[in-house]
């Protein structure tokens, strides 16, 4: 590999406070019982800030603030004015995008080239897109007078902290709801900076409330009687628990959960392009991606050629400092996630699959995992069935298109899938048969605010993005 | 001359296009008839039949599904007097037939209304289209016996789903008679399966079944049972269509909601380039 001089993005653009309160009713307040958590930089294990841990009382206070704002301000406000607040937020995000990108990489561990070039542009675009819907709801195809639901409880994961916030808050506000959002316990900092952006935009108090905390805080929020809507992105197990918790209530529920996507490479695919797509599919964001192409299904006749190319390409991936502009793979988000990845990869080896990683020097401090692939994987192996949520690729082979479909669909998940072939009719034939909410053909991991995203089967229900994304926040 | 002795009808289940008795050998007396009392095993058999029918029905062209559903409406019209004889008001039979025609026409239109091209910020073709979710368990409303039943079955199957329907326990004869209509309409066996009997026996099995993709709880009026069924449905994250509290106006324009609640949206991306 070429030696590159370090090219770190400057931290000076970010001003992290030693501690943060909860953002309720337009102000930062201390939690009622004074609990706190520490947010850590996963690349160095340095404590970045002390974060308030919201309890049941705090959640109650936030839900009441959201209710009041819904009834008094946001609900009655004309759509064109809600739109203007959302446009303001989109613009401030664009203006402060480098600051947000650096903060995201510090708190999450993802490479700056991803937070800067993928996450932040999509965050701003998402607010910009939904801003335009706020005054056009009667034309969205949900009847002539669709109504908001009320107060939305939103719980988001740590893999795309600010992007998931945008996916949740933008459509909710555009449709006229107010929100209480709980960011993930390991990545709350950009959500707290977003709270400052709401202040800067002079968004009316109580329209957006941010309650930080861990699982118990999320549970208190989801189960609160004053909530009309629950939106969750995270693991399928927690999604199931939430579906049980809201059973019998009036709460409308949307879930965006796990995945185990097949990325299918046919013998006529251009190998170099396919290899780029495979790498992007599984190593983007350290593989902390619910729609990651974590199962490579490669046609038997080209398996050897594709794997040789893939290994050559993997040997070029730079693992290290997330703030370095040359870094391809950053830090694993937490010690707990690293342990989960280690446990599953050990199971992969123990069950008989062959493990391979390129020579790769990992930093001494922080949480790191080298890009890894497994060959000789069968459909029964845990690494072919369970979501690893890390930079680990399981390789299986197939002979016929029908076998590829059979194997691709042999999972309780159904979030995404990839197809690599030069034959157009085969793409469409495959796309019809794959039970997945997003199908990328000759590309992978593409996102856009206009494009609905969400799963089949146990990957959840409801769609985020596009006109479809409004449905989750309207009484339709 | 003595009066002619009528030939009575045996009311049975409708599973996989056939009319079997309950495997349990049980029946119950309702509407002056012995009606099959479906068991949990019958419910599981019905799911197997519904799953087997998914590939053909979801894979049929929208035009073909529309033709078959329109044929169902033709058969309904022809059996008007038979439903009236069962106590279904003539107006209700007419409304049910009209409702069926309305839904039949949606088969080749919904994808255009509910899906479409997405203008993504890049050189990509990007299209979202609805697809059936798969096997749907449907709890039919207690009343109106025919209009309510038609209003929950038609929107589920027009898009390519297959259904297992738990019929109204107190008025099942209209459901079994509708099954005879379906059986003579070129509808492939297994697309609609109808169970008669107690909801408390069949519906929990359907709600917990791991090969059922969605459940429509419209006919569940007991709030506690509805909550219990939702908890069971959470195991494999079934799509749940919840009962609407209060009286439902079955004669009103039904909108798209019953169809879209049982659909998945699939979005396909492809780069543009030379």
Count of distinct structural domains of chain B:
1
Largest sheet of chain A: 7 strands, mixed
Order of helices and strands of chain B: EEHHHHHEEEHEHEHEHEHE
Distance between the termini of chain B: 88 Å
At CATH level 2, the architecture of chain B is: 3-Layer(aba) Sandwich
Tell me the strand percentage band of chain B. Answer: 15-25%
CATH superfamily of chain B: Aldehyde Dehydrogenase, Chain A, domain 1
Provide mean pLDDT of chain B, rounded: 96
Most extensive interface between two protein chains, with residue counts: A-B, 41 and 36 residues
**Level of helix content of chain A?**
25-40%
CATH superfamily of the largest domain in chain A: Aldehyde Dehydrogenase, Chain A, domain 1
Radius of gyration of CA atoms of chain B, rounded to a whole number: 19 Å
Protein name (chain A): Aldehyde dehydrogenase family protein
Keywords (chain A): Oxidoreductase
Family (chain A): Belongs to the aldehyde dehydrogenase family.
Pfam families (chain A): Aldedh
Could you explain how this protein is built, in words?
- The complex is a heterodimer of chains A (476) and B (274).
- Chain A has 476 residues and is of the alpha/beta class.
- Chain A has 2 domains: 19-257 and 459-475, Aldehyde Dehydrogenase, Chain A, domain 1 (3-Layer(aba) Sandwich); 262-441, Aldehyde Dehydrogenase, Chain A, domain 2, CATH 3.40.309.
- Chain A contains 14 helices and 18 strands.
- In chain A, the strands form 4 sheets. In chain A, strands 13-14-15-12-11-16-17 form a 7-stranded mixed sheet, sandwiched between helices. A 6-stranded mixed sheet of chain A has the order 8-7-6-9-10-18, sandwiched between helices.
- The termini of chain A are far apart.
- The mean pLDDT of chain A is 97.
- Chain B has helices at 40-59, 62-78, 80-85, 90-106, 110-114, 147-157, 173-183, 199-208, 223-233, 257-260, and strands at 27-30, 33-36, 116-117, 124-132, 135-139, 162-166, 192-195, 214-216, 239-241, 263-271.
- In chain B, α1 (40-59) crosses α8 and α4 (90-106) runs parallel beside α6 (147-157).
- The N and C termini of chain B lie far apart (88 Å).
- Chains A and B meet through α8, β17 and β18 of A and β4, α9 and β10 of B.
